[in-house]
Write a structure and sequence with these properties.
- Keywords: Hydrolase, Magnesium, Manganese, Metal-binding.
- It comes from Amycolatopsis echigonensis.
- This is NUDIX domain-containing protein.
- GO terms for molecular function: hydrolase activity, acting on acid anhydrides, in phosphorus-containing anhydrides; metal ion binding.
- The protein has about 270 residues and is α+β, with helices and mostly antiparallel strands.
- It has one domain: Nucleoside Triphosphate Pyrophosphohydrolase.
- About 25% of the residues lie in helices and about 30% in strands.
- It has seven helices and 14 strands.
- The chain has helices at about 85-95, 100-115, 135-140, 150-155, 210-220, 225-235, 240-245; strands at about 5-10, 30-40, 45-55, 65, 70, 80-85, 120, 160, 165-170, 180-190, 200-210, 255, 255-260, 265-270.
- α1 (about 85-95) packs across α2 (about 100-115), α2 (about 100-115) crosses α3 (about 135-140) and α5 (about 210-220) crosses α6.
């Protein structure tokens, strides 16, 4: 699927979008992060898991997003039990070194478990179907009491990198005060598992057809960040989750530009020179 060369969003200026002034000095250095687009098949087509972030959060408060978050330094732990494409393959997909690639995949698995309860782990040839035994570990991961590698080792589990697929690469605009260099992954809900909103970062969560989520945003019922909006537009073209996973993707680094336009903020995506 080819992303449009230019895509323009007009969104209301609001507290959740803090734009720095050029006079404030050089742009903030983006922090590495991972986001996971979690899909499932439903009677009327593919659905995506979305979370409405609590108001007042420093980044994207009040916005509807996919599960994800910043990389923890411990996510780069090379001792983690691993199945699927090696870090070298992910490094090639996301144009980074192997250490960061490993950390991004681990962050994707960890954040998905923390924020939705979906665990992309198991053995070399099976996936966890019941995550109930890991309820306390989930809370300990979210509070950073334990690392992903430590949790998987104690539970005798293997990280299943083969359940993830590379999807996109977005960097927060240089005009924003908080910036993230985010690699997007896509994964299908494992059989037997369910996603929930049992995280301190979400006020609500649930499954929704991508086109319906976009319609909600257009009509003011939810607020979407540009990467989320454009991804949902892309996903609305598919009727099955497996088709999304099988679709060839060219991972293009996209850095939007923010331009003030009266009471609105214009977000311009230009991937032609990314």
């Amino acid at each position: 699927m080819e992303r449009p060369r230019e895509f323009v969003f007009d969104i209301p200026a609001r507290p959740g979008i803090a734009i720095r002034d050029n006079a404030d000095g050089p742009p903030a250095t983006p922090k590495d992060a991972a986001t996971v687009i979690l899909l499932r098949d439903a009677s009327e087509g593919v659905e995506v898991f979305l979370q409405h972030r609590v108001m007042g959060m420093a980044f994207a408060g009040g916005m509807t997003v996919f599960p994800g978050g910043g990389v923890d330094p411990r996510d780069a732990d090379a001792s983690v039990a691993w199945a699927g494409p090696p870090p070298s393959w992910w490094a090639e997909q996301f144009t980074c070194d192997e250490s960061l690639a490993r950390a991004l995949v681990c962050a994707a698995v960890r954040e998905t478990f923390e924020e939705s309860g979906v665990l992309l782990a198991g053995t070399e040839d099976s996936v966890v179907a019941d995550v109930t035994p890991y309820h306390e570990a989930r809370k300990a991961l979210e509070s950073r009491e334990i690392s992903l590698a430590g949790f998987l080792a104690d539970a005798g589990l293997t990280l299943r990198a083969d359940l993830l697929h590379p999807y996109a690469h977005w960097v927060t605009p240089p005009q924003e005060q908080r910036r993230y260099d985010t690699r997007f992954f896509v994964a299908k809900l494992p059989e037997g598992q369910r996603a929930d909103g049992a995280t301190s970062e979400a006020a609500a969560a649930g499954w929704q057809p991508p086109a319906e989520a976009v319609a909600d945003a257009r009509e003011g019922r939810r607020a979407l960040m540009p990467p989320t909006w454009l991804t949902l537009v892309e996903l609305a073209e598919f009727s099955q989750a497996d088709a999304v996973l099988a679709e060839p993707r060219e991972i293009v680094k996209t850095v939007p530009t923010l331009v003030r336009d009266g009471e609105n903020i214009r977000v311009v995506l230009d991937t032609s020179e990314s």
